[in-house]
Structures are given as C-alpha cells and as structure tokens.
Amino acid sequence: MALCAAFLGAAAIAAGGARGGGPLPTGEDAFFQAGTQPLMPGVAPLEPALQCSICHGNYEPEQVPGRGDPDNAWADFLTYEPSRLWQSTMLGQSARDPVFWAALVIANQDVEGAGQFCMRCHVPGAFLNGRHLPADGSAVTGADFDGVSCVICHRMVDPVYKPGISPAVDQAILAALDAEGLIPPQSSNARYIIDPTDSRRGPYSAAGMPFNPHFGSPAPPIIESPFHNSSEFCWTCHDVSNPLVVRNPDDTYSLGDTSKPHPTGDHHEMFPLHRTFAEWKNSYYFTQGGVPHFGRFGGNHPTGIVSTCQDCHMPQAEAFGCNLPGFPLRNDLGAHSFAGSNTWVMRAIHALFDTSQSGLTDELVEASVARNRVMLEKASDLTLTQYGSTLRARLINQTGHKLPTGFPDGRRVWINVRFLDSGGELIAERGGYDLDSGRLIDDGDDTVVFETILGIDEAQSKLVGKPVGKTFHFLLANTILKDNRIPPRGFSNTLAVQAQTASVGATYQNGQHWYDADFPIPAPAREVVVTVYHQVTSGEFAEFLRDANTTDSQGDDIYALWQDHGGRLPTVMDSVAIQLSNPADLNGDGEINFDDLLLLLSWWGDCPIGPPLCIYDLDGDGIIGFADLLLLMSAWGAS
Fold first, then answer.
1. Are 452 and 402 contacting, i.e. CB atoms less than 8 angstroms apart?
2. Which of 13-27, 377-391, 613-627 has the highest mean pLDDT?
3. pLDDT-derived band of residue 8, with 50, 70 and 90 as boundaries?
4. What residue segments make up the domains of the chain, in order of their start?
5. Do 194 and 156 touch, CB atoms closer than 8 A?
6. Tell me: the pLDDT tens digits for 334-372?
7. What is the SS3 assignment for 333-398?
8. In this structure, what are the phi and psi dihedrals at residue 407, rounded to the nearest 5 degrees?
9. Is residue 438 classed as helix, strand or coil in its secondary structure?
C-alpha cells in the first residue's frame, strides 16, 4: 500500500510539473484527519476565553494560599488562578505565536494548503469554525486568537469509550461519529473530538459545587471526565506525523499520493515529526506507573510519584478553581501554568500585541519565562568525574520524554566545557557559543549537541525540488539524519523502533537515561566549568525562517524578534565546576615522582580497561607506553 501510494504521488507530481518553483500540489482532502470536522452540524458554538475569565480569573490576593510565602517553592511563579496562568502560556498564545506564523508561510510555500494542517493545533477555534481556509490564516479572527482555549480543552471527549469510566453521554457522541467514519485510529495530529453540547468537562464532579456558575439557558452541564487527568489527553497535539510522507515496508519513507488523504490514517504509517507522547509511553513514567520525584515535579502531589503529563506540567496546588463564594478550596488543583521550555516567544508576543488583545502584562510575561526556566533547571542533572587526563560529564535526563523533546525546529541542548589554569584563565573551550549569530562555535567532534535533524534523500529530492541533506522544510523531509537526544528513564530500544522514536547517531542501552561525554583535559588545566544549555530556537532556524520566506516580510520580522527578545539567549539547565588534578599524579599525593613512575611502569602495555577509565593511559590512545612516559617525565616534580 505504501509503495503504491509513493508511486502515485511521484506520478502526480510528474504529470503536474509543479516542481518548477511552486508549492507541492495537493488534493482538497490531502490533510484530512478524523475527529470533529469544521462547521459540523449540531456542534454548539465555542465560547470565548474572556467569558471563562469572569469566574476563573481576577482573583484577590487573599484567595491565593501561600502567595508570597518564601517556604512555598511555587509561590514566586504561580498566582494559581486558571485564567491568567493559561493566558501567559504557549497554549494560551498559540494563535499569536510569531514563530508559528513565520513557519506557516514557508509550509504553504512548500506544500499547497499546508497551513490548514498546522492550524489544527495552533488555532483550533478557527479550524472548527471553518476559518482554517484560506491556508494562509487570513480568515482567522476574533476569539480564534484564544489559541488552545478553555473550551477547546474543556469540551474534549476521550475518543475511546471506557465502560464505567467514561461519562455515559460519550457513548452516543462517539457512536454518531463512528457512523460517519470519524473516530480516529489514534489521538495524534490534533484529531480532537469536541462535545457537540456546550459542556464543561474536567477532573471534578459537580457534587461539591454549590451551584452551576456557567452562563446560558440552560447552563452548560458540568461533566466529570477522567480523560482530563490522563496523558492521552495531551496526546492530541503532542504526537504529530506528516500524512503526505508514507512509511514503506523497509521502514524508509517517501512521498505518497498528495491528491488524497493518507491511505490508512494510521500515524505510524506517516513520517514522524513530533513524538513526545510516544517518548513518555516508552518510559517508567508509563510502564511502571510513575517515578518518585519529591520536590522536583508534581507540586504538592500527595505521593511524590509523578506519571502523567499533568503531574509535571500542571503541578498540583492548594487553590480555588473558581472565584465565586462557596466554591471549595482544593488541594489538588492542577495549575494551568503548562511550564515548558520556551523562554523568549512570550516576550515577542507581548511586544507585538496590545494587552487588550493578548491579556499579557509585563508581570505575567516574566512570571511565565521564570516558570519555564525553573522547569528546564529541573529537567536534568549533571555530574563531573576526572579519570586521569579525561573529564567525563554525565548528563541525566529526569523528564518523562526525550531531552530535549518537541518539534525538530532548531531545539537543542548542548554541553559547554571551559578548562581553566591555576590562575582562572581560560585554556580551552568546547561547545562555545556566538551570541551575535546564535550559532555554536565549531570545534569538531568535541562539541556535544543533543538534537533532531531532518533530511531529504536523493529520491525525495527529485520529487520535492529541495537539495539532498539536512533540511528545516519539515513537510518535505523523509529521513531522520540525527536524533541523539537522551531517552527517558526506563526506555526500551525495541519499543522505540515501534514508536518511531529510535535513536540515530547515538547508542543507548535499554533503560539508559543519561549520556556520558568525555573530554581530553589540557595539561595545564586545574579547574573545569561545565554548563548545559538549552535553546528553543537556534540561530540556524531563525535564519531559515528569514531567508526561506519568499512571500512576505514575516521572515525578516521573526528574525528581528528573535534577536531583540531573547531568542539568541540560551537557558542554563545545569552548571558544575570541579578542581582538576594533574593527570600525571597517578597516586594522587600532590607530587609527580618515582612513585608515579613505578605505577605507570607496572601497567606498561595495552590498557586492559581502556580510556577513559585507565588513568595510567595519559594520552588516551589505549596503550601505556613511551608517549605516556614522556608526558609523566615532562611534568616531573609538579603538583
């Protein structure tokens, strides 16, 4: 089936001859995904987020337990009220995100009508209201800019009915969709199902509420929904696959028939672009029911064992869900902070839109950035160990997915190593960074960067008109050139292959959730400072958004925003410094003398352990010989 689709796609392009510079031609339904469809009959209108803020925002300080309490680790970053917290997240601002709009322009240049696919996640209100066309977003208006709004989430229905667990009303909702062939095979690719009634779904029942505070006649029903506490809820937009590029029997990918929808709709038969949910499912956070993380994630989670996306990204807090009198103080309110890794785009949005449009203030923006920085600091741990003339930096992934995770759009983590002499002067640096260009300073194999790089192979290049090799044209890519990102705790290589999350360019043993990076220590070095940086938008990707845009000025605009609002500035995840001993001081007594010489001679020959663990192999070549003897003699008497 996949090979047939690839052939038809190639034939369609050859017949159309559209590779002379225009976008790849597609059919009207090429991007069709199951679930609730635009302007579907019987689906009640979506309420704007402004209406929700009447009761779920505008809290008074006395309604916020712990605010200003220095013993409350979250007090500095959370106000707890759902409305303003959500408003200052990338979910609340997804439809104003200038990186999204700049990338959408290039997607439309590459593939006819591609923007409608992107808007399913970023502007779901526009999609459901039929304003996803034209695909350039020119019809988006009004409350569409609420992005992933209150009612988008709080009207979502679990696509899999679970007897005794799912709300009873869901059975009829799903049956009606099933009759039209609209039940998605997976929840990915924004195949959301929206309750056709104007309900309010969430993890709580109406039993503890004094009355239904929602407006309307009759008032929208309050429906208790276990789905909203599950990671499957987040699956909706956090596994994304390209339906135009299909999987072949040999596990390669090629362009399918772009005149019609994907032949099966199974996202495992599409090219993977984003697999955060699948990464989580291949970890102890799922397979063993959670991981203990007291004080790191989960807020005031009663057991400290976090398992779901919500446990980390909506940490539990003691707070009110509603500002009306009589509503309960909850000790497990999921904070609508949705902390992640984006530390600059919120500032750009605030600069582009008036507060009356975005709801953002300086205080809200900086609190949002601070929350994300804290999340990045908690995401990993770093240890340093000296083995003779080798420094080993171990970066440990403490998250429930790969590090880093998300779309391969310039996101990266790298290790910066600075070797200093006894006077504190810099001797050598690995993983250096140029702040002006936002590029890593190339120092060859000694730079360790964790990232995903998409590519285009030779056959695909002939079809899509882009050069072979690395690409940011994600809808035209058909191969993964690199994915050395660190897996989560408890991952399985077998499951990774099945879930399309296998490592490329790195080898991890089953369960390994760390990476060991070894660096030769320059002879005069007596101190090393190692810093782990995260960057959500690399200089290369910012330049791509600028240079690939041949449609409008958004490319130049986003590059300027990236420069001016913190896009160039990486975030420190970890930083550790240790003192270094002279590698030639083999017995560690502070002097290099006959005792060290005797130790080296006693190990003469092949190093049985191998570098870096064989500390007597001073030059790291795997042999203890004359080169090592010369190094020891040159340091004779030193301390």
1. no
2. 377-391
3. very low
4. 2-287, 374-405+412-450+485-579, 594-634
5. yes
6. 999 999 999 999 999 999 999 999 999 999 999 999 999
7. EECCCCCCCCCCHHHHHHHHCCHHHHCCCHHHHHHHHHHHHHHHHHCEEEEEEEECCEEEEEEEEC
8. -65, 145
9. coil
